[in-house]
Amino acid sequence: MARQERMMDPKKKLLDEKVVGIKRVTKVTKGGRRFRFSAAMAVGDGKGLVGIGIGKANEVPEAIKKGLQAANKNLVRVSLVDNRTIPHEAIGKCGRAKVLVKPAPKGTGIIAGGAARAVLELAGVKDIVAKSLGSNTKVNVAKATLEALKSVRTAEQIAELRGKKVEEL
Prior knowledge:
single chain, 4-stranded mixed sheet, 5 helices
């Protein structure tokens, strides 16, 4: 058992992790209230790989652990230009949350708040402007940010899809 944990540890250390949000959820039964915890987690390597996961459990540490496992299963590769920004602006939607992400000049930094900032930092984006539109639910804003990043394509990827050279675009 301990040997198996050691084998899985090196992969876990490659990914940074952040808590997007923790909330206490209540189920009301005839015997009273039942409290549980829901933890939204984001993981990333800072080089274009990022994922989001949600874990629910009776205790906070267990919920975080489950959230990390879910996030590791949902990893996505993000297209970056010069390993610092995105090629073009995009909008991501999840529920009523909408997030607009725009590329920014070198030295701008990450101009984003809350859940969007956590996802962008873990994805390895260094210069970007993000605006949260609509709902401000942490989980949905994080998912919408990830959707926006997934929808971004580089000129090389578009040229390949169309069967042309980059110069022809």
